[in-house]
Prior knowledge:
The protein has 116 residues and is an all-alpha fold. The protein has helices at residues 4-24, 26-34, 41-60, 63-86, 91-115. It is built from five helices and no strands.
Amino acid sequence: xxxxxxxxxxxxxxxxxxxxxxxxxxxxxxxxxxxxxxxxxxxxxxxxxxxxxxxxxxxxxxxxxxxxxxxxxxxxxxxxxxxxxxxxxxxxxxxxxxxxxxxxxxxxxxxxxxxx
Length: 116
């Protein structure tokens, strides 16, 4: 069984949820205030939505789009992890961003080894 499509769909659905949450969730809006990054909330939401769509389109249409989306989401989540550490959140609070950075790095690596 090829696990890559399952990982891609999991990540994509999660980022669709997180992306829309950046616009509508009171909790996420307050979190961006806590991070002192309110001006980046919408941009982050758009990037998450774009990455989620890129993962699925890349899976079915163009591996290069999949690779770029996975790298982009991985970098976005790495930045999120660094922000969480910078504001002194503990590892458990920071772990979702770390998990998604690693997950999308795995997707990018597997895509690269399969298609390039």
